[in-house]
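Researcher: Go.
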Amino acid sequence: MNKTPSEARIWFAEFLEANPGLANGSEDSLEVAILPSFPLLPVAAEQLAGSAVRYGAQDVSAHEWGAYTGEVAAAQLTDLGATMVIVGHSERRAYWRESDELVAQKAARAMAAGLTPILCIGEPLEVRESGKAVEYTLRQLEGSLEGIALASGDELVIAYEPVWAIGTGKTASAGDAEEMAAAIRGAIGKRYGADIAARIRILYGGSMKPANTAEIMAGPNVDGGLVGGASLDVASFSEMIASAV
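Model: Structure:
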């Protein structure tokens, strides 16, 4: 929940100036998506037109339409040009008590509308310290995929975000990130098959910054990053993008 529409307009202009390959649509070696808060989506549509940068939202309703005050429908997002949406972010799970069941419903609703869900999973500190991080996270993954059918693996993104590393300055080691990403890919393979597991994109999110981006993404099962606070600074975010190429 950062930036007013006028501040976002300045951010987008500076971001595109700092990343000319993305701005002119010629960069095809990586995929970049910006996921701002709901009021900023029209600004994203305006500023990113003609660029190679996708945009989307941070949440979506599990309901198609109706009297659900404060909710935002998937069709409203797609009409604004959004192509992706986060579901199950750790803050939604913690502050709004979103269950795996609700997250699965949101993912299904998003996919039915043509949005690509970025499904977030990850363990709190006490679970990590107990040595049960993989078990906990895979159980969360299974619950959040209930009722979700995949045809290719391209229609869903998984983001591993260890809760203890979000906004704390602490970061999972590259080895930790790769271990979990490999476990997630293995679980996807068991559930949907090897072909889908090979194609699905797995991101790491949790205090990513320019200094650790390349190391974290060097893991063969880590396909990208879900960047939080570091994206607010154009120079920092642009450096991370350059490290990811």
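Model: The radius of gyration is 17 Å.
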